[in-house]
Amino acid sequence: MITDARGRPFPLEDAKGCVNKGWASLIEEAWAFLETQGDVRVFQVKEKFGGLRIYSNATSNAATKFLDALENKSSTICEECGAPGKLSGSGWWRALCPAHTPVKDHS
Q1: How many angstroms separate the CA atoms of 42 and 30, rounded?
Q2: Any residues with CB less than 8 A from the CB of 53 and at least 6 apart, and which?
Q3: Which of 93, 105, 99, 67 is nearest to 80 (CA)?
Q4: What is the pTM of this model?
Q5: Residue 10: other Cβ atoms inside 10 A
Q6: 77-to-46, 83, 98 alpha-carbon distances in Å
Q7: Are 45 and 14 in contact (CB under 8 A)?
Q8: 30-77, pLDDT tens digit by residue?
């Protein structure tokens, strides 16, 4: 069972609500994997430096490798729509596809 920092159930839908909808499939992957790890506490789900971060007490080698790979994968997926994307920005980094990347005003 996946619980939050206080030991209360941490439903998948609540986890998906912590980041933009483009990463919903990544959260689903993470929850499916973490549920195989026994009782897991997830302390935080968020975007940081353009990547998905899931902080938990799952510290096995398999969990660490899985979450690291998921974090790397997230930087290639648009956090807005789930299409292929890349990191963009300066100061505030985001993983975005061309359709969601803001056009710079050079006027």
Answers
A1: 11
A2: 44, 45, 46, 47, 71
A3: 99
A4: 0.91
A5: 23
A6: 15, 6, 11
A7: no
A8: 999 999 999 999 999 999 999 999 999 999 999 999 999 999 999 999
3-class SS of residue 3? strand
- Both structure tokens of 39: 């009782």
Neighbours of 1 (CB within 10 A): 11
User: Residue 37: what residue type?
Assistant: Q
DSSP 33-99: HHGGGSSEEEEEEEEETTEEEEEES--SHHHHHHHHHHHHHHTTB-TTT-SB-EEE-SSS-EEE-GG
- Which residues are CB-contacts of 82 (< 8 A; sequence separation ≥ 6)? 21, 22, 23, 24, 25
- Enter the tokens of residue 66: 């899985």
